[in-house]
Design goal:
- The chain is of the alpha/beta class.
- The chain has one domain: Ribonuclease H-like superfamily/Ribonuclease H (Nucleotidyltransferase, domain 5).
- It contains eight helices and five strands.
- Strand 4, helix 5 and strand 5 form a beta-alpha-beta unit.
- Helix 7 packs across helix 8.
């Protein structure tokens, strides 16, 4: 049994009201996929009422409207379940700094914390190593380069599932090149 069959990961993504938590932007959707042996085993998803309007620019990307989140739970009601779901598992995302920045900001506002150091992997970093000739690394382009013919939807669960496919292919390629240990601790 190799490390890929043993390791558990949480692929996660958020959609937001804008691009910066420091300017008051908040999470409007959060999704995660628990993966064991590179197979999905459990899902987490919730729309979130951000308590503020969604910017037009954010709506144009994710198509999440104020009406869609009006009756959704607030983030402080969603986070405890999310924290239980992720446990101490390695978090994976495409440009994960963005998602983690929002997660940490929301945890701070809610008076919560992860309670442990987070181990994370960014599919952009893996893609840069495996696909060095790309000039840019947006999720849709990395997916397309890997032969995944699925459009990026900019909705949290759809992006989690696309990131999962990208992640699996990149890890398999890293394994074939004998550089997998660079990414897995």
């Amino acid at each position: 049994m190799n490390v890929l069959e043993e390791k558990e990961f949480i692929i996660f993504d958020v959609e937001t009201t804008g691009l910066s938590p420091s300017f008051g932007d908040r999470i409007v959707e959060i999704a995660a996929l628990k993966v064991k042996g590179l197979k999905p085993v459990e899902r987490f998803h919730s729309l979130v009422n951000p308590g503020r309007p969604i910017s037009l620019a954010a709506f144009e990307v994710n198509r999440i409207s104020d009406q869609m989140v009006a009756k959704a739970p607030c983030i402080h009601d969603v986070l405890p379940s999310f924290l239980t779901f992720i446990g101490q598992t390695t978090l994976v995302g495409h440009n994960i700094r963005f998602d983690l920045g929002f997660l940490y900001h929301e945890l701070e506002i809610a008076g919560l914390s992860l309670g442990h150091a987070v181990e994370s992997l960014d599919t952009i970093q893996i893609a840069r190593r495996i696909l060095p000739d790309l000039r840019r690394y947006p999720l849709w382009l990395v997916a397309d380069t890997l032969g995944i013919k699925e459009n990026q939807k900019h909705r949290a669960m759809a992006d989690v599932e696309l990131t999962f496919e990208v992640f699996c292919r990149l890890l398999r390629m890293a394994n074939e090149k004998n550089i997998l240990e660079e990414f897995l601790v």
